[in-house]
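User: Fold both of these, please.

Assistant: Here is the first one.
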Amino acid sequence: ATDMQRIRPIIWLHIPKCGSAFQTTLAHHSCGKLLPEDLSLLNPDREMPFKNTTHVRTPCMYHGEVVRWNSEPEATTCMWNMACGTPRGEFDEQPFAHFTVYHEPLWDLSMSAWGMPWASVPQISEFYLGKVVCMFREPRQRLISQWNYFVQIKSPKELLRGFKFLVQCHSAAGSQMILGMRYGQCDNAGVPTILKVMDRRRAKQAVQRRLRQFGFVGMTDDWAITVCLFHAMFGGECLPVEFHKLRKGPKAREPSGYNVTEYGLEDFTSMDDDMFRAAREMFWSNIIRYGVHRGLCRRIICSKAPEAFGF
Protein backbone atom coordinates (compact mmCIF):
# COMPACT_ATOMS: atom_id res chain seq x y z
CA ALA A 1 0.00 0.00 0.00
CA THR A 2 1.13 3.53 -0.72
CA ASP A 3 1.54 6.02 2.11
CA MET A 4 -1.79 7.61 1.17
CA GLN A 5 -3.64 4.28 1.01
CA ARG A 6 -2.47 3.29 4.47
CA ILE A 7 -4.72 5.89 6.11
CA ARG A 8 -7.72 5.36 3.81
CA PRO A 9 -10.61 5.48 4.37
CA ILE A 10 -10.00 8.21 6.95
CA ILE A 11 -12.17 8.33 10.08
CA TRP A 12 -12.06 11.88 11.47
CA LEU A 13 -12.71 11.71 15.22
CA HIS A 14 -13.41 15.31 16.20
CA ILE A 15 -13.13 15.99 19.93
CA PRO A 16 -14.70 19.40 20.73
CA LYS A 17 -12.30 22.36 20.66
CA CYS A 18 -9.48 20.22 19.28
CA GLY A 19 -8.25 21.45 15.94
CA SER A 20 -11.18 21.87 13.57
CA ALA A 21 -8.77 23.46 11.11
CA PHE A 22 -6.99 20.14 10.65
CA GLN A 23 -9.92 19.27 8.38
CA THR A 24 -8.13 21.48 5.84
CA THR A 25 -5.18 19.09 5.81
CA LEU A 26 -7.44 16.05 5.49
CA ALA A 27 -9.44 17.55 2.62
CA HIS A 28 -6.38 18.58 0.61
CA HIS A 29 -4.65 15.28 1.29
CA SER A 30 -7.67 13.34 0.03
CA CYS A 31 -8.73 15.54 -2.89
CA GLY A 32 -5.35 16.79 -4.08
CA LYS A 33 -5.48 18.98 -7.18
CA LEU A 34 -9.29 18.86 -7.23
CA LEU A 35 -9.26 21.57 -4.52
CA PRO A 36 -7.96 25.13 -4.87
CA GLU A 37 -4.67 25.35 -3.02
CA ASP A 38 -5.90 28.24 -0.89
CA LEU A 39 -9.10 26.54 0.31
CA SER A 40 -9.41 26.72 4.11
CA LEU A 41 -11.94 24.37 5.60
CA LEU A 42 -13.65 24.83 8.95
CA ASN A 43 -16.91 23.00 8.38
CA PRO A 44 -16.98 20.25 5.73
CA ASP A 45 -20.75 19.94 6.16
CA ARG A 46 -21.37 23.53 5.04
CA GLU A 47 -18.32 24.52 3.01
CA MET A 48 -18.60 22.28 -0.02
CA PRO A 49 -16.38 23.79 -2.72
CA PHE A 50 -17.98 21.72 -5.47
CA LYS A 51 -20.86 23.17 -7.48
CA ASN A 52 -21.65 20.13 -9.65
CA THR A 53 -25.21 19.30 -8.62
CA THR A 54 -25.07 15.89 -10.35
CA HIS A 55 -23.39 14.64 -7.17
CA VAL A 56 -26.60 15.23 -5.26
CA ARG A 57 -28.59 13.06 -7.66
CA THR A 58 -26.11 10.19 -7.51
CA PRO A 59 -27.01 7.34 -5.10
CA CYS A 60 -24.52 7.35 -2.27
CA MET A 61 -23.46 4.27 -0.33
CA TYR A 62 -22.35 4.51 3.29
CA HIS A 63 -21.28 1.20 4.82
CA GLY A 64 -23.38 -0.76 2.36
CA GLU A 65 -26.56 1.29 2.69
CA VAL A 66 -28.02 3.98 0.45
CA VAL A 67 -27.89 7.33 2.23
CA ARG A 68 -30.53 10.08 2.02
CA TRP A 69 -29.00 13.41 1.09
CA ASN A 70 -30.65 15.10 4.05
CA SER A 71 -28.99 12.62 6.40
CA GLU A 72 -25.95 14.19 8.00
CA PRO A 73 -23.15 13.34 8.58
CA GLU A 74 -23.29 10.34 6.26
CA ALA A 75 -24.28 12.53 3.32
CA THR A 76 -21.34 14.85 3.93
CA THR A 77 -18.90 11.94 3.91
CA CYS A 78 -20.40 10.58 0.70
CA MET A 79 -20.38 14.00 -0.96
CA TRP A 80 -16.69 14.49 -0.24
CA ASN A 81 -15.85 11.00 -1.46
CA MET A 82 -17.63 11.64 -4.76
CA ALA A 83 -16.19 15.12 -5.10
CA CYS A 84 -12.71 13.69 -4.55
CA GLY A 85 -13.20 11.37 -7.49
CA THR A 86 -14.41 8.07 -6.01
CA PRO A 87 -18.20 8.00 -6.46
CA ARG A 88 -18.48 4.27 -7.01
CA GLY A 89 -15.22 2.85 -5.73
CA GLU A 90 -14.87 0.11 -3.18
CA PHE A 91 -15.49 1.42 0.31
CA ASP A 92 -11.96 0.77 1.53
CA GLU A 93 -10.54 2.64 -1.45
CA GLN A 94 -12.49 5.83 -0.75
CA PRO A 95 -10.85 8.82 0.94
CA PHE A 96 -13.21 8.99 3.91
CA ALA A 97 -15.15 6.61 6.09
CA HIS A 98 -16.26 9.56 8.22
CA PHE A 99 -15.68 13.26 7.55
CA THR A 100 -17.85 15.82 9.31
CA VAL A 101 -17.49 18.69 11.75
CA TYR A 102 -19.85 16.98 14.21
CA HIS A 103 -18.48 15.43 17.40
CA GLU A 104 -19.52 11.81 17.08
CA PRO A 105 -18.05 8.91 19.03
CA LEU A 106 -16.48 5.76 17.71
CA TRP A 107 -18.94 2.91 17.79
CA ASP A 108 -18.56 0.31 20.51
CA LEU A 109 -21.27 -2.33 20.79
CA SER A 110 -20.56 -2.85 24.48
CA MET A 111 -21.42 0.81 25.09
CA SER A 112 -24.47 1.02 22.82
CA ALA A 113 -26.92 0.76 25.71
CA TRP A 114 -25.71 4.16 26.95
CA GLY A 115 -27.05 5.86 23.87
CA MET A 116 -25.36 7.33 20.82
CA PRO A 117 -27.17 9.49 18.27
CA TRP A 118 -24.65 8.55 15.57
CA ALA A 119 -21.35 6.75 15.32
CA SER A 120 -18.41 7.07 12.98
CA VAL A 121 -18.66 3.55 11.55
CA PRO A 122 -21.13 0.74 12.28
CA GLN A 123 -18.59 -1.26 14.25
CA ILE A 124 -15.01 -0.30 15.04
CA SER A 125 -12.54 -3.11 14.40
CA GLU A 126 -8.76 -3.09 14.63
CA PHE A 127 -8.66 -2.37 10.90
CA TYR A 128 -10.78 0.75 11.29
CA LEU A 129 -8.91 1.96 14.36
CA GLY A 130 -5.87 2.18 12.12
CA LYS A 131 -7.78 4.71 9.99
CA VAL A 132 -8.74 7.07 12.82
CA VAL A 133 -7.26 10.58 12.73
CA CYS A 134 -7.66 12.64 15.91
CA MET A 135 -6.30 15.89 17.30
CA PHE A 136 -5.66 16.34 21.02
CA ARG A 137 -5.40 19.35 23.32
CA GLU A 138 -4.31 19.80 26.93
CA PRO A 139 -7.54 18.95 28.82
CA ARG A 140 -7.83 22.07 30.96
CA GLN A 141 -7.22 24.30 27.94
CA ARG A 142 -9.91 22.39 26.05
CA LEU A 143 -12.43 22.76 28.89
CA ILE A 144 -11.86 26.50 29.22
CA SER A 145 -12.16 26.92 25.46
CA GLN A 146 -15.43 24.99 25.47
CA TRP A 147 -16.85 27.14 28.26
CA ASN A 148 -15.87 30.34 26.49
CA TYR A 149 -17.53 29.04 23.35
CA PHE A 150 -20.80 28.45 25.21
CA VAL A 151 -20.53 31.95 26.69
CA GLN A 152 -19.91 33.36 23.22
CA ILE A 153 -22.98 31.70 21.69
CA LYS A 154 -25.02 32.33 24.86
CA SER A 155 -26.03 28.69 25.31
CA PRO A 156 -28.88 28.86 27.87
CA LYS A 157 -28.51 25.26 29.03
CA GLU A 158 -24.78 25.46 29.71
CA LEU A 159 -24.86 28.94 31.22
CA LEU A 160 -27.61 27.84 33.60
CA ARG A 161 -25.60 24.83 34.74
CA GLY A 162 -22.44 26.91 35.13
CA PHE A 163 -18.71 26.56 34.64
CA LYS A 164 -18.03 24.10 37.46
CA PHE A 165 -20.67 21.69 36.22
CA LEU A 166 -19.37 21.88 32.64
CA VAL A 167 -15.81 21.19 33.78
CA GLN A 168 -16.91 18.12 35.72
CA CYS A 169 -19.34 16.82 33.10
CA HIS A 170 -17.00 17.31 30.13
CA SER A 171 -13.83 16.23 31.92
CA ALA A 172 -13.89 12.84 30.18
CA ALA A 173 -15.21 14.04 26.80
CA GLY A 174 -12.38 12.62 24.71
CA SER A 175 -12.21 9.35 26.61
CA GLN A 176 -15.94 8.81 26.21
CA MET A 177 -15.83 9.47 22.47
CA ILE A 178 -12.99 7.00 22.00
CA LEU A 179 -14.99 4.32 23.80
CA GLY A 180 -18.19 4.97 21.88
CA MET A 181 -20.09 7.32 24.18
CA ARG A 182 -21.27 10.86 23.56
CA TYR A 183 -19.09 13.66 24.90
CA GLY A 184 -20.61 15.60 27.78
CA GLN A 185 -22.78 12.66 28.84
CA CYS A 186 -23.10 12.72 32.62
CA ASP A 187 -25.54 12.42 35.51
CA ASN A 188 -27.25 15.30 37.32
CA ALA A 189 -24.25 15.64 39.62
CA GLY A 190 -21.91 16.08 36.67
CA VAL A 191 -20.24 12.65 36.95
CA PRO A 192 -19.23 11.47 33.45
CA THR A 193 -21.13 8.38 32.34
CA ILE A 194 -17.94 6.48 31.62
CA LEU A 195 -17.08 6.53 35.34
CA LYS A 196 -20.45 5.03 36.13
CA VAL A 197 -19.80 2.18 33.69
CA MET A 198 -16.29 1.28 34.85
CA ASP A 199 -13.70 2.48 37.33
CA ARG A 200 -11.02 4.93 36.22
CA ARG A 201 -8.27 2.30 35.99
CA ARG A 202 -10.27 0.07 33.64
CA ALA A 203 -11.45 3.05 31.62
CA LYS A 204 -7.88 4.33 31.29
CA GLN A 205 -6.69 0.95 30.03
CA ALA A 206 -9.56 0.67 27.53
CA VAL A 207 -8.97 4.18 26.16
CA GLN A 208 -5.23 3.69 25.80
CA ARG A 209 -5.60 0.27 24.20
CA ARG A 210 -7.84 1.75 21.53
CA LEU A 211 -5.95 5.03 21.10
CA ARG A 212 -2.63 3.27 20.46
CA GLN A 213 -4.17 1.67 17.38
CA PHE A 214 -5.16 5.00 15.81
CA GLY A 215 -3.71 5.83 12.43
CA PHE A 216 -2.68 9.34 13.42
CA VAL A 217 -2.70 11.57 16.48
CA GLY A 218 -1.80 15.24 16.42
CA MET A 219 -1.34 18.03 18.95
CA THR A 220 -3.05 21.41 18.67
CA ASP A 221 -0.19 23.03 20.60
CA ASP A 222 2.34 21.63 18.12
CA TRP A 223 0.38 22.52 15.01
CA ALA A 224 3.16 22.98 12.47
CA ILE A 225 4.96 19.80 13.47
CA THR A 226 1.65 17.92 13.48
CA VAL A 227 0.92 18.93 9.88
CA CYS A 228 4.45 18.04 8.84
CA LEU A 229 4.27 14.66 10.60
CA PHE A 230 1.01 13.79 8.85
CA HIS A 231 2.63 14.37 5.45
CA ALA A 232 5.76 12.50 6.50
CA MET A 233 3.61 9.50 7.39
CA PHE A 234 1.03 9.60 4.58
CA GLY A 235 2.43 11.71 1.76
CA GLY A 236 0.50 14.37 -0.13
CA GLU A 237 1.52 17.95 -0.80
CA CYS A 238 1.97 20.18 2.24
CA LEU A 239 0.36 23.56 1.53
CA PRO A 240 0.63 26.97 3.23
CA VAL A 241 -3.13 27.04 3.87
CA GLU A 242 -2.76 24.12 6.30
CA PHE A 243 -1.08 26.42 8.79
CA HIS A 244 -3.94 28.93 8.94
CA LYS A 245 -5.63 28.06 12.23
CA LEU A 246 -9.11 29.29 11.51
CA ARG A 247 -10.86 29.29 14.86
CA LYS A 248 -9.21 31.04 17.79
CA GLY A 249 -11.15 31.00 21.01
CA PRO A 250 -11.94 34.25 22.83
CA LYS A 251 -9.63 35.35 25.62
CA ALA A 252 -6.86 32.94 24.64
CA ARG A 253 -3.30 33.95 25.53
CA GLU A 254 -0.92 33.05 22.72
CA PRO A 255 1.20 31.02 22.63
CA SER A 256 0.71 29.54 26.10
CA GLY A 257 -3.09 29.49 25.93
CA TYR A 258 -5.48 30.27 28.77
CA ASN A 259 -4.28 31.04 32.28
CA VAL A 260 -5.72 28.06 34.17
CA THR A 261 -5.27 29.80 37.53
CA GLU A 262 -7.73 32.50 36.47
CA TYR A 263 -10.32 29.74 36.05
CA GLY A 264 -9.43 27.91 39.27
CA LEU A 265 -8.14 24.84 37.44
CA GLU A 266 -4.48 24.89 38.45
CA ASP A 267 -4.92 21.70 40.52
CA PHE A 268 -7.69 20.13 38.45
CA THR A 269 -7.15 16.62 37.12
CA SER A 270 -9.41 14.45 35.02
CA MET A 271 -9.66 11.17 33.19
CA ASP A 272 -8.81 12.92 29.95
CA ASP A 273 -5.38 13.69 31.45
CA ASP A 274 -4.56 9.99 31.07
CA MET A 275 -5.81 10.03 27.48
CA PHE A 276 -3.79 13.16 26.65
CA ARG A 277 -0.57 11.76 28.08
CA ALA A 278 -0.98 8.58 26.03
CA ALA A 279 -1.71 10.58 22.87
CA ARG A 280 1.27 12.86 23.42
CA GLU A 281 3.55 9.88 23.99
CA MET A 282 2.34 8.35 20.72
CA PHE A 283 2.79 11.66 18.91
CA TRP A 284 6.42 12.09 19.95
CA SER A 285 7.13 8.43 19.30
CA ASN A 286 6.03 8.97 15.69
CA ILE A 287 8.11 12.15 15.47
CA ILE A 288 11.17 10.06 16.33
CA ARG A 289 10.16 7.12 14.17
CA TYR A 290 9.75 9.25 11.05
CA GLY A 291 12.71 11.50 11.78
CA VAL A 292 10.63 14.67 11.70
CA HIS A 293 12.27 17.91 12.80
CA ARG A 294 11.82 21.57 11.94
CA GLY A 295 14.73 21.67 9.50
CA LEU A 296 13.37 18.72 7.52
CA CYS A 297 9.87 20.23 7.50
CA ARG A 298 11.13 23.64 6.42
CA ARG A 299 13.43 22.41 3.66
CA ILE A 300 11.69 19.33 2.26
CA ILE A 301 8.28 18.17 3.54
CA CYS A 302 6.62 21.59 3.83
CA SER A 303 8.96 23.67 1.70
CA LYS A 304 6.04 25.77 0.43
CA ALA A 305 5.49 27.06 3.99
CA PRO A 306 8.98 27.49 5.50
CA GLU A 307 7.83 30.37 7.70
CA ALA A 308 5.73 27.93 9.73
CA PHE A 309 8.94 26.42 11.10
CA GLY A 310 11.09 29.51 11.54
CA PHE A 311 13.93 30.66 9.38
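And the second sequence with its predicted structure:
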Amino acid sequence: NPGYAGRTELPDNLKALFRPVTMVVPNLELICMVMLMSEGFITAKVLAKKMTTLYKLAKEQLSKQYHYDFGLRALKSVLVMAGDLKRSSPELSEATILMRALRDMNMPKFVFEDVPLFKGLIKDLFPGLDTPRVRYASFNDAVDAALVDSGYQFLEVQADKVVQLYETMLTRHTTMIVGPTGGGKTVLLNTLKRAQDSLGVPTKMHTLNPKAQSVLELYGVLDPATRDWTDGLLSNIFREMNKPVPEGKDERRYIVYDGDVDALWVENMNSVMDDNKLLTLPNGERIRLNYPTCCMLYEVFDLQYASPATVS
Protein backbone atom coordinates (compact mmCIF):
# COMPACT_ATOMS: atom_id res chain seq x y z
CA ASN A 1 0.00 0.00 0.00
CA PRO A 2 2.14 2.94 -1.24
CA GLY A 3 2.66 5.87 1.11
CA TYR A 4 0.94 4.15 4.04
CA ALA A 5 2.35 4.39 7.57
CA GLY A 6 3.59 1.09 8.95
CA ARG A 7 4.12 -0.55 5.55
CA THR A 8 7.21 -0.76 3.33
CA GLU A 9 7.34 0.02 -0.38
CA LEU A 10 7.89 -2.84 -2.82
CA PRO A 11 11.27 -2.71 -4.60
CA ASP A 12 11.01 -1.95 -8.35
CA ASN A 13 12.10 -5.40 -9.55
CA LEU A 14 9.22 -6.94 -7.55
CA LYS A 15 6.78 -4.19 -8.51
CA ALA A 16 7.12 -5.23 -12.15
CA LEU A 17 5.76 -8.70 -11.32
CA PHE A 18 2.49 -7.46 -9.83
CA ARG A 19 -0.21 -5.36 -11.34
CA PRO A 20 -1.51 -2.44 -9.30
CA VAL A 21 -5.21 -2.20 -8.45
CA THR A 22 -6.81 1.19 -7.97
CA MET A 23 -9.61 1.69 -5.48
CA VAL A 24 -12.20 4.45 -5.38
CA VAL A 25 -13.60 6.19 -2.33
CA PRO A 26 -17.06 4.81 -1.50
CA ASN A 27 -20.12 7.00 -2.01
CA LEU A 28 -20.47 8.22 1.58
CA GLU A 29 -23.79 9.98 1.05
CA LEU A 30 -25.52 6.86 -0.21
CA ILE A 31 -24.12 4.70 2.60
CA CYS A 32 -25.15 7.37 5.11
CA MET A 33 -28.66 7.54 3.73
CA VAL A 34 -29.18 3.77 3.80
CA MET A 35 -27.87 3.51 7.36
CA LEU A 36 -30.04 6.39 8.58
CA MET A 37 -33.06 4.74 6.94
CA SER A 38 -32.29 1.44 8.63
CA GLU A 39 -31.93 3.24 11.97
CA GLY A 40 -35.47 4.57 11.46
CA PHE A 41 -34.92 8.15 10.27
CA ILE A 42 -37.63 9.42 7.93
CA THR A 43 -35.83 12.47 6.56
CA ALA A 44 -32.74 10.37 5.84
CA LYS A 45 -31.95 11.88 2.45
CA VAL A 46 -31.62 15.47 3.70
CA LEU A 47 -29.76 14.43 6.85
CA ALA A 48 -27.29 12.26 4.93
CA LYS A 49 -26.46 15.21 2.67
CA LYS A 50 -25.90 17.47 5.70
CA MET A 51 -23.77 14.92 7.44
CA THR A 52 -21.46 14.16 4.52
CA THR A 53 -21.14 17.91 3.82
CA LEU A 54 -20.14 18.52 7.45
CA TYR A 55 -17.45 15.85 7.27
CA LYS A 56 -16.16 17.13 3.94
CA LEU A 57 -15.93 20.70 5.29
CA ALA A 58 -14.34 19.51 8.53
CA LYS A 59 -11.70 17.62 6.58
CA GLU A 60 -10.88 20.72 4.51
CA GLN A 61 -11.14 23.51 7.07
CA LEU A 62 -9.95 22.15 10.41
CA SER A 63 -6.26 21.87 11.26
CA LYS A 64 -4.43 18.69 10.25
CA GLN A 65 -3.86 16.49 13.29
CA TYR A 66 -2.58 12.93 13.29
CA HIS A 67 -5.59 11.68 15.23
CA TYR A 68 -8.29 13.27 13.05
CA ASP A 69 -10.24 10.83 10.94
CA PHE A 70 -13.34 11.81 8.98
CA GLY A 71 -13.69 8.59 7.04
CA LEU A 72 -16.35 5.92 6.79
CA ARG A 73 -15.74 4.36 10.21
CA ALA A 74 -16.14 7.70 11.96
CA LEU A 75 -19.40 8.26 10.08
CA LYS A 76 -20.65 4.80 10.94
CA SER A 77 -20.14 5.18 14.69
CA VAL A 78 -22.01 8.50 14.65
CA LEU A 79 -24.90 6.86 12.77
CA VAL A 80 -25.11 4.02 15.28
CA MET A 81 -25.13 6.50 18.16
CA ALA A 82 -27.81 8.59 16.42
CA GLY A 83 -29.96 5.45 16.10
CA ASP A 84 -29.57 4.73 19.83
CA LEU A 85 -30.51 8.33 20.66
CA LYS A 86 -33.57 8.14 18.43
CA ARG A 87 -34.81 5.03 20.18
CA SER A 88 -34.15 6.40 23.65
CA SER A 89 -35.79 9.81 23.06
CA PRO A 90 -38.29 9.55 20.17
CA GLU A 91 -39.91 12.90 21.05
CA LEU A 92 -36.95 14.92 19.69
CA SER A 93 -36.79 16.03 16.06
CA GLU A 94 -34.52 14.03 13.79
CA ALA A 95 -32.26 16.99 12.98
CA THR A 96 -31.73 17.60 16.72
CA ILE A 97 -30.85 13.94 17.30
CA LEU A 98 -28.32 13.85 14.47
CA MET A 99 -26.82 17.17 15.54
CA ARG A 100 -26.36 15.92 19.10
CA ALA A 101 -24.73 12.71 17.88
CA LEU A 102 -22.39 14.61 15.56
CA ARG A 103 -21.44 17.10 18.25
CA ASP A 104 -20.95 14.66 21.12
CA MET A 105 -18.96 12.14 19.07
CA ASN A 106 -16.64 14.70 17.47
CA MET A 107 -16.09 17.36 20.13
CA PRO A 108 -13.80 15.32 22.40
CA LYS A 109 -11.16 14.79 19.70
CA PHE A 110 -10.70 18.39 18.56
CA VAL A 111 -7.74 20.49 19.62
CA PHE A 112 -8.61 23.77 21.32
CA GLU A 113 -8.51 26.04 18.25
CA ASP A 114 -10.71 23.73 16.17
CA VAL A 115 -13.65 23.70 18.59
CA PRO A 116 -15.14 27.10 17.58
CA LEU A 117 -14.64 26.24 13.88
CA PHE A 118 -16.54 22.97 14.21
CA LYS A 119 -19.28 24.63 16.28
CA GLY A 120 -19.62 27.20 13.48
CA LEU A 121 -19.93 24.44 10.85
CA ILE A 122 -22.66 22.71 12.85
CA LYS A 123 -24.50 26.02 13.33
CA ASP A 124 -24.43 26.65 9.57
CA LEU A 125 -25.79 23.21 8.72
CA PHE A 126 -28.36 23.02 11.51
CA PRO A 127 -29.46 26.66 11.88
CA GLY A 128 -31.52 27.58 14.94
CA LEU A 129 -30.78 24.32 16.78
CA ASP A 130 -28.97 24.61 20.07
CA THR A 131 -29.25 21.66 22.41
CA PRO A 132 -27.44 21.69 25.76
CA ARG A 133 -25.10 18.85 26.63
CA VAL A 134 -26.65 15.86 28.37
CA ARG A 135 -26.01 15.87 32.10
CA TYR A 136 -25.67 12.55 33.92
CA ALA A 137 -26.91 13.51 37.37
CA SER A 138 -25.08 10.98 39.55
CA PHE A 139 -22.00 10.61 37.32
CA ASN A 140 -21.29 14.35 37.00
CA ASP A 141 -21.51 14.78 40.77
CA ALA A 142 -19.26 11.76 41.34
CA VAL A 143 -16.64 13.22 38.96
CA ASP A 144 -16.70 16.60 40.71
CA ALA A 145 -16.37 14.92 44.11
CA ALA A 146 -13.54 12.66 42.90
CA LEU A 147 -11.54 15.63 41.61
CA VAL A 148 -11.95 17.59 44.85
CA ASP A 149 -11.21 14.56 47.05
CA SER A 150 -7.94 13.92 45.24
CA GLY A 151 -6.86 17.43 46.16
CA TYR A 152 -7.04 18.87 42.66
CA GLN A 153 -8.28 22.33 41.86
CA PHE A 154 -11.75 21.93 40.39
CA LEU A 155 -11.84 23.01 36.74
CA GLU A 156 -15.03 22.85 34.70
CA VAL A 157 -13.11 21.92 31.51
CA GLN A 158 -11.34 19.03 33.17
CA ALA A 159 -14.54 17.65 34.68
CA ASP A 160 -16.14 17.93 31.24
CA LYS A 161 -13.22 15.97 29.73
CA VAL A 162 -13.94 13.10 32.14
CA VAL A 163 -17.59 13.12 31.06
CA GLN A 164 -16.49 13.18 27.40
CA LEU A 165 -14.27 10.15 28.05
CA TYR A 166 -17.18 8.40 29.74
CA GLU A 167 -19.50 9.18 26.80
CA THR A 168 -16.93 8.01 24.27
CA MET A 169 -16.50 4.76 26.15
CA LEU A 170 -20.25 4.16 26.07
CA THR A 171 -20.07 3.84 22.28
CA ARG A 172 -16.53 2.60 21.64
CA HIS A 173 -14.49 -0.23 23.11
CA THR A 174 -11.11 1.35 22.36
CA THR A 175 -10.31 4.93 23.31
CA MET A 176 -7.11 6.87 22.86
CA ILE A 177 -6.25 9.68 25.24
CA VAL A 178 -3.92 11.98 23.32
CA GLY A 179 -2.03 14.91 24.78
CA PRO A 180 1.35 16.25 25.88
CA THR A 181 3.15 15.16 29.05
CA GLY A 182 1.62 16.91 32.04
CA GLY A 183 -1.62 17.49 30.14
CA GLY A 184 -3.67 15.61 32.72
CA LYS A 185 -4.22 12.27 30.95
CA THR A 186 -3.52 10.13 34.01
CA VAL A 187 -5.61 12.41 36.25
CA LEU A 188 -8.46 11.93 33.78
CA LEU A 189 -8.24 8.13 33.99
CA ASN A 190 -7.91 8.03 37.75
CA THR A 191 -10.86 10.41 38.17
CA LEU A 192 -13.00 8.19 35.93
CA LYS A 193 -11.95 5.16 37.99
CA ARG A 194 -12.76 6.89 41.30
CA ALA A 195 -16.09 8.20 40.04
CA GLN A 196 -17.15 4.73 38.86
CA ASP A 197 -15.94 3.12 42.09
CA SER A 198 -18.06 5.54 44.12
CA LEU A 199 -21.12 4.74 41.97
CA GLY A 200 -20.80 1.05 42.79
CA VAL A 201 -19.10 -0.02 39.56
CA PRO A 202 -15.68 -1.31 40.67
CA THR A 203 -13.03 -0.47 38.07
CA LYS A 204 -9.75 -2.36 37.63
CA MET A 205 -6.97 -0.89 35.53
CA HIS A 206 -4.05 -2.88 34.13
CA THR A 207 -1.38 -0.42 33.02
CA LEU A 208 1.46 -1.63 30.83
CA ASN A 209 4.14 -0.05 28.69
CA PRO A 210 4.00 -1.84 25.33
CA LYS A 211 7.44 -0.59 24.27
CA ALA A 212 9.24 -1.96 27.36
CA GLN A 213 9.46 -5.46 25.86
CA SER A 214 9.66 -6.99 22.40
CA VAL A 215 6.56 -7.80 20.35
CA LEU A 216 7.19 -11.52 20.98
CA GLU A 217 7.22 -11.01 24.76
CA LEU A 218 4.04 -8.94 24.44
CA TYR A 219 1.90 -11.35 22.41
CA GLY A 220 3.63 -14.66 23.18
CA VAL A 221 5.74 -16.84 20.92
CA LEU A 222 5.22 -20.23 19.26
CA ASP A 223 8.41 -22.26 18.87
CA PRO A 224 8.40 -23.39 15.20
CA ALA A 225 10.39 -26.58 15.91
CA THR A 226 8.70 -27.97 19.03
CA ARG A 227 5.34 -26.16 18.70
CA ASP A 228 5.76 -25.07 22.32
CA TRP A 229 3.65 -22.03 23.22
CA THR A 230 5.05 -19.38 25.56
CA ASP A 231 2.39 -16.99 26.77
CA GLY A 232 3.10 -13.29 26.38
CA LEU A 233 2.53 -10.49 28.87
CA LEU A 234 -0.36 -8.88 27.03
CA SER A 235 -2.01 -12.13 25.97
CA ASN A 236 -1.98 -13.28 29.60
CA ILE A 237 -3.52 -10.05 30.95
CA PHE A 238 -6.05 -10.01 28.10
CA ARG A 239 -7.17 -13.60 28.79
CA GLU A 240 -7.51 -12.99 32.54
CA MET A 241 -9.40 -9.77 31.99
CA ASN A 242 -11.98 -11.23 29.63
CA LYS A 243 -13.11 -13.99 31.96
CA PRO A 244 -16.86 -13.69 32.58
CA VAL A 245 -18.07 -11.43 35.40
CA PRO A 246 -19.88 -13.20 38.30
CA GLU A 247 -23.70 -13.06 38.12
CA GLY A 248 -25.30 -9.85 39.33
CA LYS A 249 -22.00 -7.97 39.60
CA ASP A 250 -21.25 -4.98 37.43
CA GLU A 251 -17.59 -4.10 37.02
CA ARG A 252 -15.23 -2.51 34.54
CA ARG A 253 -11.79 -3.76 33.55
CA TYR A 254 -9.49 -1.59 31.47
CA ILE A 255 -6.12 -2.23 29.87
CA VAL A 256 -4.18 1.02 29.71
CA TYR A 257 -1.33 1.09 27.20
CA ASP A 258 0.89 3.85 28.53
CA GLY A 259 3.50 4.28 25.83
CA ASP A 260 4.09 5.15 22.21
CA VAL A 261 1.60 3.86 19.67
CA ASP A 262 3.78 2.31 17.03
CA ALA A 263 2.82 0.32 13.94
CA LEU A 264 5.03 -2.56 15.12
CA TRP A 265 2.85 -3.70 18.00
CA VAL A 266 -0.41 -1.87 17.40
CA GLU A 267 -1.18 -3.38 13.98
CA ASN A 268 -1.74 -6.71 15.76
CA MET A 269 -4.43 -5.01 17.84
CA ASN A 270 -6.38 -3.87 14.78
CA SER A 271 -8.70 -6.90 14.91
CA VAL A 272 -9.48 -6.05 18.56
CA MET A 273 -10.08 -2.40 17.81
CA ASP A 274 -12.49 -2.90 14.91
CA ASP A 275 -15.94 -4.49 15.08
CA ASN A 276 -14.60 -8.05 15.38
CA LYS A 277 -13.24 -7.43 18.91
CA LEU A 278 -11.02 -10.53 18.62
CA LEU A 279 -7.38 -10.86 19.66
CA THR A 280 -5.75 -13.57 17.54
CA LEU A 281 -2.59 -15.02 19.05
CA PRO A 282 0.26 -16.71 17.10
CA ASN A 283 -0.87 -20.16 18.36
CA GLY A 284 -4.28 -19.75 16.74
CA GLU A 285 -6.10 -18.95 19.99
CA ARG A 286 -8.75 -16.25 19.75
CA ILE A 287 -9.88 -14.17 22.70
CA ARG A 288 -12.98 -12.01 22.42
CA LEU A 289 -13.06 -8.61 24.10
CA ASN A 290 -15.89 -8.78 26.61
CA TYR A 291 -17.37 -5.31 25.93
CA PRO A 292 -18.85 -3.34 27.82
CA THR A 293 -17.09 -4.87 30.86
CA CYS A 294 -13.64 -4.66 29.27
CA CYS A 295 -12.21 -1.74 27.35
CA MET A 296 -8.83 -0.77 25.97
CA LEU A 297 -7.34 2.66 26.57
CA TYR A 298 -4.23 4.17 25.01
CA GLU A 299 -2.43 6.95 26.80
CA VAL A 300 -0.16 8.53 24.24
CA PHE A 301 1.63 11.75 23.28
CA ASP A 302 0.57 11.74 19.61
CA LEU A 303 -0.39 9.33 16.86
CA GLN A 304 2.40 10.22 14.47
CA TYR A 305 3.54 6.63 13.92
CA ALA A 306 0.11 5.00 13.88
CA SER A 307 -1.27 3.90 10.51
CA PRO A 308 -4.55 5.38 9.22
CA ALA A 309 -6.27 2.04 9.89
CA THR A 310 -5.33 2.25 13.56
CA VAL A 311 -6.53 5.84 13.84
CA SER A 312 -9.89 5.09 12.24
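The chain has 14 helices and eight strands.
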